[in-house]
């Protein structure tokens, strides 16, 4: 199982954060439209991520949702054809939520920087620092990114986009 340290924060000006990513030397990997279908499971989270390119990934992850910095253990299976698997999972597990997003991806060292727009929720930045058997390096890189992007604790979101959408639906 793979592991990373994650943070997510609400942002107002995505262009500013894209500029900072380029200034620190992050490489732009592309812009993607993604649909994440979350399924009802007892433990962790299971989602099918469909890219506008036609590629899909089945992703299972477990993480504590109690802090702004969260360790996440995850597994990803890449799929070339997912429609029949999606239909099977919908029938077997049911859909918890569907999250659509436009995501810009940057890579800096062993970190993924995501600048996301979620319809109905707004703009966010995510850092995922991939664990490489050196927890100190992971934490130092996360702190470097938070400092460079000038993120404050009040900006952080402690839950997934799935939870944010469900909260918003429950408020209606």
Automatic annotation (TrEMBL):
SMART domains: CYTH (SM01118). Residues 2-167 form the CYTH domain. PROSITE patterns: CYTH. SUPFAM superfamilies: CYTH-like phosphatases. CDD domains: CYTH-like_AC_IV-like. This is Adenylyl cyclase CyaB, putative. The lineage of its organism: Bacteria, Pseudomonadati, Candidatus Kryptoniota, Candidatus Kryptobacter. InterPro entries: Adenylyl_cyclase_CyaB, CYTH-like_dom_sf, CYTH_domain.
């Amino acid at each position: 199982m793979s592991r990373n340290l994650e943070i997510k924060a609400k942002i107002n000006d995505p262009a500013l954060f894209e500029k900072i990513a380029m200034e620190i030397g992050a490489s732009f990997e592309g812009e993607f439209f993604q649909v994440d279908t979350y399924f009802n499971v007892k433990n962790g989270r299971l989602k099918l991520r469909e890219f506008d390119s036609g590629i899909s990934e089945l992703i299972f992850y477990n993480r504590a949702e109690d802090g702004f910095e969260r360790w996440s253990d995850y597994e990803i299976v890449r799929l070339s054809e997912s429609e029949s698997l999606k239909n099977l999972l919908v029938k077997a597990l049911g859909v918890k939520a569907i999250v659509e997003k436009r995501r810009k991806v940057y890579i800096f060292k062993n970190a993924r920087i995501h600048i996301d727009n979620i319809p109905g929720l707004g703009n966010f930045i995510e850092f995922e620092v991939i664990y490489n058997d050196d927890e100190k390096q992971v934490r130092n890189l996360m702190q470097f990114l938070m400092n460079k992007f000038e993120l404050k604790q009040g900006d952080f979101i402690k839950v997934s986009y799935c939870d944010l959408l469900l909260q918003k639906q429950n408020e209606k």
